[in-house]
Design a protein that fits this description.
- The chain is an alpha/beta fold.
- It is built from 15 helices and eight strands.
- It has an eight-stranded parallel beta barrel with strand order 1-2-3-4-5-6-7-8, surrounded by six helices.
- Strand 1, helix 2 (32-40) and strand 2 form a beta-alpha-beta unit.
- The two termini are 16 Å apart.
- The structure holds phosphoenolpyruvate and magnesium ion.
- Phosphoenolpyruvate binds next to strand 2 and helix 10.
């Protein structure tokens, strides 16, 4: 645990490797308390704001005004730093009160969830997009789309965004990013990067879909480790493919808050980390003790490991050299 003076020093220190690579270190935040902690710990912004929280609260859908106020307050709370608004991610394990989520799906995790659900309800979706676009200053909110499997979904979202901008008389560019949560998105990261402004890996879902293990099922919980070499190879491939279009890749899933994973993620080419607010200081410390050169060598070894347990052993050995 990092304490007192060291915490304060870290909050003001850049998140830079010893050989000069800058990592953007953001926080996942929904509540005012998250935002406050993110600020005191020196986060560079919000890398994941899960908007479904607004939809889980009551039976009625949140209005455009209600959503606008929530997004605006987030921007105000972060005092001018960028915030990443993830569009509605209902379905699968996230049921809503308003009844948008389909009932009786045999495989809800493979059913109408995330962007698929949003595209099924264009009016609900464009209300959300309009609420985001109302937040000033324009561009402060980046839009991020969950559960994308195909380029056509990104294009459909872009069409909704363009239409809302046209109606609202907005000409400025608004960053539109894609979450990499399906193996399909990871393996076509070049196609997505060609048309998205950034990619952000949701390691919770990516792990569940790569391993075909339900993230909420206790019977397989022991096997659901995002440090599985298959997941790491997907992350590495995502970074490699995104780089062909000059797009940056972030991680906003749980792996971003795992100290064992950070050196590997940096070594694989991830340049933005969005962690839980309480982990921001430690994450910064880990990055500041690294060099990109050693992170890359370490990541190469991790990709060759035979199991998640081997990767964890490798990570422990690496930490011992710090
Ligand atoms: C993820 O899947 O890693 C993610 C960040 O989204 P959520 O946990 O909200 O599904
Ligand atoms: Mg997810």
């Amino acid at each position: 645990v990092i304490e007192g003076r060291r915490l304060a020093l870290l909050a003001n220190a850049p998140t830079r490797t010893r050989d000069g690579l800058d990592i953007r270190l953001l926080a996942n935040a929904e509540s005012a308390a998250d935002v406050a902690l993110a600020r005191t710990r020196g986060a560079d912004g919000v890398g994941l704001y899960r908007t479904e929280f607004l939809f889980l609260r009551h039976k009625d859908l949140p209005s455009e005004d209600e959503q606008f106020i929530a997004y605006r307050d987030l921007v105000l709370g972060m005092g001018g730093l960028p915030v990443t608004i993830r569009t509605l991610d209902l379905g699968a394990d996230k049921a809503d009160a308003a009844g948008l989520v389909m009932q009786g799906e045999e495989n809800p995790a493979l059913g109408v969830r995330g962007v698929r659900l949003s595209l099924r309800y264009p009016a609900v979706f464009s209300t959300q997009i309009r609420a985001i676009l109302r937040v000033k200053p324009l561009g402060q909110c980046r839009i991020m789309v969950p559960m994308v499997a195909s380029l056509s979904e990104l294009r459909a979202v872009r069409a909704v965004l363009d239409e809302a901008k046209r109606e609202m008389g907005i000409a400025e560019r608004i960053e539109l990013g894609v979450m990499i949560e399906t193996p399909a998105a990871a393996m076509t990261a070049d196609l997505l990067a060609a048309e998205a402004d950034f990619l952000s890996i949701g390691t919770n879902d990516l792990t569940q879909y790569v391993l075909a293990m339900d993230r909420g099922n206790p019977a397989v919980a022991a096997g659901v480790d995002a440090l599985h070499p298959a997941v790491l190879r997907m992350i590495g491939e995502t970074c490699r493919l995104a780089a062909t279009h000059g797009r940056w890749v972030g991680v906003c899933g749980g792996l971003a808050s795992d100290p064992a994973a950070l050196p590997i993620l940096v070594g694989l080419g991830v340049t933005e980390i969005s962690a839980v607010p309480g982990f921001v200081a430690e994450a910064k410390q880990v990055v500041r003790r690294l060099t990109l050169v050693e992170a890359r060598a370490h990541a190469d070894l991790a990709l060759q490991c035979k199991s998640a347990a081997d990767v964890r052993a490798l990570a422990r050995a690496f930490e011992d050299t710090r």
